[in-house]
Amino acid sequence: MSAETHAGEGAGTHIRPAAEDAAGTAPGTGTPGAVAGGAPDATSTSYIAHFRVWRGDIDGGGLTDFEVEVHEGEVVLDIVHRLQATQAPDLAVRWNCKAGKCGSCSAEINGRPRLLCMTRMSVFERTETITITPLRAFPIVRDLVTNVSYNYAKAREVPAFVPPQDLGPGEYRMQQEDVERPQEFRKCIECFLCQDTCHVVRDHEENKQAFAGPRFLMRVAELDMHPLDAAEETGLDRKTTAQDEHGLGYCNITKCCTDVCPEHIKITDNALIPLKERAADRKYDPIVWLGNKIRRRS
Ligand code: SF4
Ligand code: SF4
Ligand code: FES
């Protein structure tokens, strides 16, 4: 996640100037075709939608109702920007790219973790009330902005790739399928929607210490399947640490993380389940068991 910070706005928090909207144009309030009062004209390309937006800070808050104009082709982030421009200039929201690539604009829309910039208004009924709330699994900073530092702490706990000792730069060789397999995981934009939706931490703050979450278990899986990773030669067994230090056992493969991933990474099927299988193979491998027993005795 990039962390663009504007002076006076708080870390990565944008307050839109009243002179521009998402498309860089003046946010009109009287566009021809916009139908007031939440009674949309099905033939019009503009309408007034009803939003409920969570406002508050660490000390508490609640949902505030707004009526906002919507134009054809807009995404929810456009509406949040129009809200800032016309009705709530101090509404805090984090965003950077508006292209689904920086992972900053994560929030919950009607209770589902989503990117504000990649959620089209056209997926909702025009008469529907759209509720926007901050990510539930992380502490509130203000309004739609949460403190996601849990994720950075977990990232730091995963030991990096260990280069092979006997090969120099330029001498690495890998099968094409070994290159392609982790490529899927490298698409991650670190939006932390998967971390937010995972029930292991979503309702259980107490699990955060022991559980890295799907995004970082996926990173462990990626490194464990890397044919050139020399971690084991340094005494680091990634399969064992996945269980003992990153909380792989907490995951009961519900696939909720996969369901919300905006990059459509098959987190559960391609990373977590294979990692669980390899960890179980390691744990119950009789040769490994015997070796460990002999090592312990000596
Ligand atoms: S599959 Fe595992 S990591 Fe993903 S949401 Fe379910 S419990 Fe969490
Ligand atoms: S795995 Fe998907 S949902 Fe999780 S942080 Fe990466 S892009 Fe976001
Ligand atoms: S603003 Fe970058 S992902 Fe939404």
From TrEMBL:
Compositionally biased residues, Low complexity: 20-39
Keywords (A to Z) from UniProt: 2Fe-2S, 4Fe-4S, Iron, Iron-sulfur, Metal-binding, Oxidoreductase
InterPro entries: 2Fe-2S_ferredoxin-like_sf (IPR036010), 2Fe-2S_ferredoxin-type (IPR001041), 2Fe2S_fd_BS (IPR006058), 4Fe4S_Fe-S-bd (IPR017896), Beta-grasp_dom_sf (IPR012675), Helical_ferredxn (IPR009051), SDH/FRD_Iron-Sulfur (IPR050573), Succ_DH/fum_Rdtase_Fe-S (IPR004489)
Pathway annotation: Carbohydrate metabolism; tricarboxylic acid cycle
SUPFAM superfamilies on file: 2Fe-2S ferredoxin-like, alpha-helical ferredoxin
Positions of region (Disordered): 1-39
Domain 2Fe-2S ferredoxin-type: 49-136
PROSITE patterns, alphabetized: 2FE2S_FER_1, 2FE2S_FER_2
Domain of life: Bacteria
Cytoplasm found in the keyword field: no
Pfam families according to UniProt: Fer2_3, Fer4_8
Gene3D superfamilies in the cross-refs: 3.10.20.30, Alpha-helical ferredoxin (1.10.1060.10)
Cofactor(s) the protein needs: [4Fe-4S] cluster; [2Fe-2S] cluster; [3Fe-4S] cluster
Family: Belongs to the succinate dehydrogenase/fumarate reductase iron-sulfur protein family.
Name of the protein: Succinate dehydrogenase/fumarate reductase iron-sulfur subunit
